[in-house]
Amino acid sequence: MPREDVAQPDDGAPAAPLKPPPREIELKLSASPEALETLRGADLIARHARNQGVTRRLDAVYYDTADRLLDRNGLSLRVRRSGKRHVQTLKRSGSGGPLVRDEWEVALPDGALDLALLPLAEIGEPLASLAAGQLAPVFATRIRRRVRRLDYAGALLEIAFDDGTIEAGENSLPVSEVELELKEGEAAVLYEFGLAMLDIVPLQVETRSKSARGYGLAFSRLPRAVKAKPVEIAEQDNADAAIAAILGNTYTQLLGNLAPVAARSGPEAVHQLRVSLRRLRSALAIFKREVASPALVPIGQEAKRLGHVLGPARNWDVFITQTVPDIEAEGLDDAGLSVLRTAAEPFQARSYAAVEERLADARTSRFLLSFGALIERRGWRSGLASETMTVLAEPAANFAGRVLEQTHRKALKRGRGFGSLHPEARHELRLALKKLRYTAEFFLPLHDGSLTRKYLARLSRLQDALGLANDAATTQDLLADLRKGKATGPELQFAAGAVHGWQSRHTIEAGRTLKKRWRTFEATKPFWT
User: Fold this and answer.
1) Where are the beta strands (DSSP E) in 406-447?
2) Cα 33 from Cα 525, distance rounded (Å)
3) Does residue 316 register a pLDDT over 90?
4) How many contiguous H segments (helices) and E segments (strands) does the chain have?
C-alpha cells in the first residue's frame, strides 16, 4: 500500500514527497478598546519594533454555499479589499495545534471571486468541485488594522491591532483584539509575548476566528461544545513525544470549550470544559510518577483552581436538565417537581456568573498562555536528572504499559474489601477508576483491539454504577441549598422528599449489581499485557 504522505506518479518514476500546505501560525487575544490603545503605545512594542508600522482599512466579504458546505468542512473563503488591492484567501483548520491553520492567498485583479486562481488540486474537496456561481456572500468584516513587525526572543512576529465590526444583515459584533502572527522562529514565542503583554493590560485568549464568529452571527448559532479527540501517538514515538501529544490533546479540548461556556451554549459546554481539566490533571498525575518535573506543578494547580469553579455550574445543570426530568419521566410528574427546577435556576445563574468571572480573570489567561508555551517548549524537560531524561527517550509503548499498570493496580488497591467500603472510600475508588479510564484512553492508539474494548466497557459499567451513589449525594447537597433559599415552602419540601426517595431506591437497586460489576472488572485481563 502506498504511503499517504508521498505522491504516487503514474509513470513509475520515484515518488516525491507531497508539498505541505502554506500555514498561518497565529495567536489571538481580545482586549477592550482602551487596553488596545494602551498596548499600542507600550514600551514593550516600541523596544522590539522593526518599523513604525502601517494602518490599513480592511473590508472583507466571506462566501459559502447555501448549505454552508465550506463551513461544514472547516474552510473559510473571503475576498478582502485594502485600498485598491483585493486578495482572495482560503483558510482551513489545521492539524498542527490550536495556533495553526492552512492558508492560501492570491491577488485578484478586479475583486471578483475566482476559485480557479487557487491551487484546487492541492486543496482538494469540496472546493475542487465547486463553481464560483454556487457561492454567495454570508457576512462581512470591517476592520481598522495597525500592523508592526517585531523581533522578539529570536523570532520575527507581526502584531496587528484590530478594531471594527463583523456584520451579517442588520446584526453586528464588535471586534477589538490583538493578532500575533509568527513569521519566523518558534511558536512558543507567541505565547511568551502574549504573557509579556498581559503584564501591561488585561487580555483574554480568543479561541474563535473572525470567520467562526461571523458564521455564528449570520446563522444565530452558538459555539458548540468540543469532545476530546483520540490522542495521536504512534508506535515509533518515545515517551517525550507521548507526553507532548497527551498534553496538546487536553489543551486543544480546553481551548475549544472556552467560547461555548462563555456564550452559555448549554450544559454540555461546561461538562466538556470540566472533562478537559480532569483529563489534564489525570495526565499530570501519571506523569508525576515518571517525570517529576517542577514545570508541571503550576499547570496542575491552575487546572484544579479553574475546575473547582466549574463544579457548581455542572451540578446545577445536571439537576435541572437530567435529575428532575428523569424523575418526572418515571411517573412522578405529579410530585410538583417543577418547583425544584424554578428554585434551582437562580443558583444555576449565580454559578455561571462565577464561571464567567473566572474565565475573564487575567490569572486564567496567564494559565492558558503558560500552558501553551510549556507544550511548545516541552518545558517538562527542564531541570530533570539524567536518569529521568532516559525515561523520556524510551519507547512510548513501554512508558504506556508502566503507567497503565501503576494506575490499574492503584485502582484495585482502592477497591480491596469492596463489599465493606464506607462511602468516602467508594468515592476515592470512583476517582481512581476515572483516572484509570482517562489513562487508558490516552494510550488507546497503541493498544486498539478486542481486549481493550472489553476492558473499557467493563470499566465504564462499573463507573456508571458507582456514579449513582455520588449523584445522589450531590443532589442531597443541592436540595439542602434549595431548602435554605428564598423559595422554600411545603411544596418544595414535598418535592425534595420525592427526589430523595426516588434516588434512594435507584441507589439500592444499583447496589445489588455493583459488587458483581466490581468482581467482573477485577477479573478482566489488562489489555497492555
Assistant:
1) none
2) 59
3) yes
4) 18, 11
Distance of alpha carbon 23 from alpha carbon 101, whole angstroms: 6
Under a CB-based contact definition with an 8 Å cutoff, are residues 76 and 94 in contact?
A: no
Query: Concatenated DSSP letters for 291-333?
Result: ---GGGHHHHHHHHHHHHHHHHHHHHHHIIIIIHHHHIIIIIG
Low-confidence winner among 57-61, 277-281, 290-294, 520-524 (lowest mean pLDDT): 290-294
| Residue 455 and residue 526 in contact, taking contact as beta carbons nearer than 8 Å | yes
Mean pLDDT, rounded, for 365-387: 94
CB-CB contact of 335 with 490 (8 Å): no
- The position carrying cell 504506556 is 400
**How far is the first Cα of the chain from the last one, in angstroms, to the nearest whole number?**
30
Question: If residue 289 lies in a helix (H) or strand (E), which one and from where to where?
Answer: helix 267-290
Q: Which amino acid is at 212?
A: A
Looking at every residue in the chain, the average pLDDT score rounds to 91
Task: Classify residue 420 by burial, with Cβ atoms within 10 Å: 0-12, 13-18, 19+.
Answer: exposed
Output the nine-digit C-alpha cell for 88: 482572495
461 alpha-carbon distance from chain centroid: 26
SS3 content of the chain, % helix, strand, coil (to 5): 55, 20, 25
**pTM: predicted TM-score of the whole model, two decimal places:** 0.92
So what's the pLDDT on residue 141? 98
- Answer yes or no: is pLDDT of 18 > 70: no
Note the pLDDT of residue 3: 36
24: buried, middle or exposed (CB in 10 Å: 19+, 13-18, 0-12)? Answer: middle
Question: What is the per-residue pLDDT for 20?
Answer: 72
